[in-house]
Amino acid sequence: MPFHKFIRRGKFVLTPALILPLAGCAKGSPWWIFDPKGVGAHASFIYMMIDVGVMLAIVGATALAIVWFMWKYRKGSNRGAYDGKWAHSNTLEVAFWGIPIIAVGFLAWAVSVNGSFAVNPYNPTAITKHLKPNGDPIDIDVIATDWQWLFIYPQYHHIAIANKLVIPAHTPVFFRLTSTAVTTDFFVPQLVGMIDVMPGMRTKDALMSDHLGTYQGIAADYCGAGMSWMLFKTHVVRKTDFDRWTQMMESNPDTMDYQQFNRFAEPYINVHDKTPAWGHVEPGLFDHVMLEVMNGKKWPLPMFMTENMFHYLKIQAAEHRA
Amino acid sequence: MLVNVPGPWSPLLGRLALSEIPYTNPILAPLFIVIVLAGIVLIAGVTYYGKWGYLWKEWFTTVDHKKLGIMYIILGLIMLFRGFIDGLMMRTQQALGDGPGDNGMKVMGAIHGYLAPFHFGQIYSAHGLIMILLAATPLLVGLMNIIVPLQIGARDMAYPYLNALGLWITTAAVFLIMISLFVGDFSHNGWFGYAPIFELAYSPGVGVDYWIWTLELVALGTTLGSINFLATVVKMRAPGMTWGRLPVFTWTAVSANIIALTSFPCLQVALALVGADRYLGTHFFTAGFGGNLMLYTNLFWLWGHPEVYFVILPAFGMLSEVIPAFSEKPIFGYITMVLASFAIAGVSWIVWLHHFFTMGMGPYVSTEFSIATMLVGIPTGVKVFNWAFTLYRGRLTFSAAMLWSIGALFLLLIGGLTGMMLAIPAINYMVHNSVFVVAHFHMMLLCIVYAVFSAIIFWFPKIYGFKLNEAWGKIMFWLFSAGTFLVFFPMFMLGFMGETRRLDWPFNPQWGPWFDVQEIGIFVYILSVLAFLWMLYVSIRDRHANRVHTADAWGTSRSLEWLTDTPVPFYNFAMVPHINALDEVAWRREHGFMDKKPDHFKAIHMPNNTPIALYIGALTFLVGFGLTWRVWWLTLASLILAVILMIYRSNKGDPGYIIPAEKMEEMDRESKARMLSDDSHQVPHGGGFSGGTVTAYTALDRDASGSLTPPNDSRHL
Ligand code: HEM
Ligand SMILES: [Cu+2]
Ligand SMILES: [Cu+2]
Q1: What integer is the mean pLDDT of B50-65?
Q2: What is the ipTM score, two decimals?
C-alpha cells in the first residue's frame, strides 16, 4: 500500500476512543456486536451484558483488592500490620468457594440455559415464540462453495443469487445450510450469530430483523485462501420491495442445473465482489449437492493457488470468470 | 506411492524438487542466506575455540535435569522469538492491507498488504503451533525439569535418559517446523487444523504433512516427559517430604502432567488418522464416503482443552512460589490451592465442546458444556482470591519477579472474564471465530509468559549463582506490558466490531485505526525484546557484583530448592535433606537450621551421560522429514535405526557410577567454598563439618547418632 496512507491513518488513532461511548446511537455503527439489528443478535447482546455485569463485579472487586493490598502492604510503607504466619481462614475460604459457586449458579440459569434456547440456531425461541400463524416465514437454502455463497429461494420459483442476501423485514427467515468442499461459518454480525456450514451435512439457522438496512455477512471460519473475499451484503428491505425484487429475479433468463452448479462451485476467489443471479435453479439442488458430496464428490484445489494473487487473477480472467 | 499426490514424485527424493525451495521469495531467500552465514560463523567459532568436546560432554550427551531444563528454556526462548516475528508479520499485513482499494505489494504477489493468502496462512498456523507447543510448553517443561527434583530433594529425575530423549525429540520437532520455512511450505489450516480442509484434495502441498509430524513429535516428547515427572514426584521425594508438604509448584506439575499423560495420546491418535487419510487414502475425516469430519474436531479439542490447562497449571505454580517469597508469608490456603489445581485438571476433561458451540449441537448439549466450562471458573477464581490474600498482611517487595507475577494476575483476571463470556453459547455465537477469542487466549497465554519470566528471574540465581539485573528486568516488564495493552486492547475492540480471525485481507476500513495502534504495540514489544537482551548482557557483565553467596538467594524464599548450594552442584544435594515442614527453607530459617551442614557423607549413585538420546532425536527428525516428503526409504531406514538404538540401549541399561563418600565431602567443601568465596561478604563459615548435632540431614531423632537411614515417618516439632 502507499505509505502516505499509512501515515494519514495515524490521525484516526484516537477516534475509536471517542466512538465507543456513541456506539449505541451512532448510525451505521462500526461496533457491530454492540449494535444488534436482528432478533437473535439482540438477544445475544442482552445476555452478554448480564454476563459481563456479574463477572465484572467479581473481577473488578478482585482487581481493586489486589491494588489496594499492593499499596497497603508494600514493604517499608508501614501502612498495614505484617503477619508472616497468617495463611488460612475458614471464613474467607468458604467465601472464596462460595462467591464463584453462586455466580456460576446464577449465570448457568440466567444466561446459559435461557440463552441457549433463545438463540438456538435450529429453533430460536426468541423468534419462533412470536411466530404468527400466517406469518409466511421465508425459507432460504444456502450453499457455501470455495469461496462463494449461493442463496436459493425455493418458495420463489427457485430464484438464486450469489454473494448477496436479500430478505424482507419483520419476517422470520429459516436457512438450511450446506457446503461443497470444506467447512465454514455463516455469520452476519449485526443480525445473527455463527453457524457452521459443513460439506455433506445440513445445518439450520434462523434470522429476523425489524431494521431496514444493509449488513455485512462474513465467512467466519477459515475455509481456505479465498476466505477474506467470501463476503456477502445482507439487505433487509420492506416486504413490498422484497416482492418486487423476487419478481424481477424470476424474470431473469439465466438458469442453473447441477452441471452448471458443478462449474460454479470450482475454486473462485470473489475479488471483484460479483453477485451473479439466476431466475431459476434446479429444484432440489441443495439435496442433490449434499448427496453428491456424501458420495465423495470433491472440488480439489490446485497447488500454490494463491502464492501470487496477480498470477491467480490472470488465470481467473483467462477462464472468463473475472 | 500409496495415494496419488499432485506434482512429481520420485523414489529417491519423494516430492522434493528444486521448485519447492523459495529462492525467489524476497523475504525467505535473504533470511536463508543470513541463517546459513550465522551458522557458519557459529560453527567456525566453536571450532576455533575448541569447544566441541565441551559441548558434546557437558550438553549434547548430558542427562542432568538442570542442563536439560536449561536447554529446554533456550529452545523455548528461541521459538518465542520466532513466534513473535510471525506475530509481527501478521500485524503488519493487517495494518497495511486493511480496507478496499489497491494497497498490495506487487513484488510480493499480494493484492492487499504484502502477504498473499498462501503466505499469510502459513504464518498464523506456524505462529499458533509454535507459541503453544514449541515455546510455552518447552519453557514450562524446562522450568519443571530444573525445579521439581530440587523441590522434592531428588538428585535427578526418575529416568534421566528418558528426560534427554524428551528434549531431543522436541528439538527434532523444532527443526522440522523451522525447515518448513525453506523447504516446501507449512500448513494453512491454523494450529488446530480444520477438517476436511486438511485432506489432500484441499491441501495438496506438504504443509499439512509438516504440521502433522511436528505435532506428533512434540506430542511424543511431552508424553515421555510427563511419565518422568509423575514417576519422579511419586518415587523420589526426600524423607519427610510427605504429600502434605509438597510445594505448590510441584503439585501443579503433578496435576499438569497427569493431564499431559492422559490427553496427548488423544492428539496422537487424531493426527495419525489425519495421516491415514492423507497417506493411505482412508476416509476418517473426509466429507464423503462415510467420513466424519466433526469427529476430528472433537478428538482434537478433547486433547486441546486439557492442553491449555496443561500449560497454565505450572504457570499457576510459579505464581504460587514467587508471590509468597516476595510477600514474606506462606501461600494463603495451601490445601485449597492444591485442590483447586486438581479440580481444574479434572473439569478440563469435560468442556471440550465449547470450542465449537457453533456446530449446531442443540441447546441441551451446549448448555451442559457451557455450565461445565463455567465450573472451571470456580477453582480458577479461588486461586486468584488466594493469591490476593497472600499479599494481604504481607511485606511486599516489588522486585522484577514480583512485578511479572502480579502482571500475570491481572491478565488472568481479564482472560477469566472473557472466558466466562465465551462459555455462554448465546454470547459465543457472536464472537466465536472472531479476534475476541484470539484476544481471550492471548491473555491466558501471556499470563503464562509473564509467569515464566517471573520464574526465570526468580530461579536464575539458584542455577547460575548470580542475579539478573533488576532494573532492566523491570524496564522490560513495563515495555512488555505496554506492548500487551497496545496490541490486545484493540484486539478486544475489533472483536466487538465483528472482525473474524485469520483474515488475510481485513475488508473493513473502520478497523484501520485499531490496526495502527496494534502496530505501535508491536514496536513497543520489539523494545522489550531488546530490553531482555540488554538485561542478559548487563547481568552477565556484572555477574561478579551480582553474585549470590547464600543458599537462599532472596533471603525470603520458602521451598526446598533454596536449601542447597548456589549454584546448584550437579548432584543437587550433598546429603539428601530431611524435610520437617511445608516450606522447609522458611521453617529452617525460623528455627535457626539454615547454617546446619551435614557432618558425614554417603556414597551417591549418579547416571552416566549418553549420546543415544541425541541420536534417536535426530533420527525422529529424519522420520518426520521423510514422511513429509514421502521419501519412503529415508523414513524406513531412520525408523528402523531408531528402534534398534532403543532396543540396544534398553538391553545395555545404565549402571551409573558411584561417587564415594570422601569424594562427596571434598566436593561439598569446594562447592560451599565457591559459594562463599568473596572477602567482602560476611557469611558465617562452616559450623557443620566438624560435628555438632546435625538434625537436618540424617534424622530428627537425636539418638540416631551415625545412623544413615533416615526415618520414614515425619515428625512434628
Ligand atoms: C476461566 C477459565 C476459562 C474459560 C471459562 C475459558 C473459556 C474458553 C472458551 C469457551 C473458548 C472457546 C472460544 C471459541 O472458540 O469460541 C476458549 C478458547 C480458548 N482458550 Fe479459554 N477459557 C479459560 C481459560 C483458558 C486458559 C487457562 C487457557 C490457557 C492458556 C485458555 C486458552 C484458550 C485457547 C488457546 C483458546 C482458543 C483456541 C483456538 O480456537 O485457537 N483458556 N476458552
Ligand atoms: Cu499469537
Ligand atoms: Cu477450551
Answers
A1: 94
A2: 0.91
